[in-house]
Amino acid sequence: MSSYLAPLGLPDGAHNFSADAVYFRFRDADNRPVWGVCSYKQVDSALYKGADPEVTRSAIQKSVCLVGRGDSPPWRAAAARLEPIAHAFIQHQDSGVLHGVYESLKTVADAPDELLLELRSVLAKYDTRMLTLLKLRLLGKRVLFMSSDQPTELMCSEILALEAAAPGRPMCLPYITLSMMDDPVVAQCQGFVGASNRLYKQKWREQFEALVENNNLLFADKALERLVSPTQADLRFVDWLQKMCRQSRCHWEGSEEWLRSQLEDYLRGLRLAVEASGVEGDKLNAAYGVAFVQEISRQDEVVRWLSPYGEGGESVGGGDIASKSASTIAAGRPDPGGHPGAGQPSLQDVKLRLVHHAKGFMAHFNNL
């Protein structure tokens, strides 16, 4: 574990930002889950009291790291506690702030598992690509996120928010450094991986099946792109989610909890599609994508992840699903029970499909 801390504490390209944060996960030698938060600061050498006289660089870079164990890291609480400590210790050279830090930070482990970034923000940024990314995650595809021109913290937060929306939530790697390129930990990860070194982008097709950069989603294989491409029901569903999420946070509809409940409905419908047969099964398969449902059905682990969704109208997240369903029906969405975006074809469908194709064309053009 110690071999990872030094490169993770000072992320690739850290000199481009005065402050940043890194979130990481991996397993130790005993296969126990380990998580960590590193708060990075960059200080002008001339203002740093403890600088070595032989230092010739104009800035000094330091990082304070918090490492813990467990499957449900308290990301938000850990980051909130660590940032002021790092600020005082690095930027103000206040070593006294370290006294009692260990005892203070031990209570972080008891904090709730709160995300750093709302899924609403991820939806606003990625629109239909959010569902595509969740499909890739369900299939266990290796997806590389690049953040060469933005703080690493934002990329890590997006990855963790997406990971939390997928059932099962096995290990992801919110951030890796260049020194980890050939590490077995990276090679064995089947999911989202974050990086900021441009060398990863140059070789991404050798190690990964999809690339996310600057809101764009690229595929190494056209067959995979077709497999996870949004169906018409997917496009309707995301369009409806976006409209509802643009409303006031004071309402249940459009809130963060509401959005997660709708994604649970989506997974519940997918579970039904995997199990259904006959005419009803054909309808469900078409709504989610026939080839996609067939591929999901072949993966026993994914089917097991989906098993808690569906029976009796209950979701993994709990809550009064009946009342939630009633509110969504009143808002104009079809009755849950299959794909939440299922419905009769309309002129709006043509518009949604054209917009989707236009965005795909622009993404391809921007990456030529």
From TrEMBL:
InterPro entries membership: ABL9/DENND6_dom, DENND11/AVL9_GEFs
Stretches for region Disordered: 327-346
Gene Ontology CC annotations of this record: cytoplasm
Top-level taxon in the UniProt lineage: Eukaryota
Domain AVL9/DENND6: 3-162, 171-270
A Pfam family hit: Avl9
Identification of the protein by name: Late secretory pathway protein AVL9-like
Record organism: Tropilaelaps mercedesae
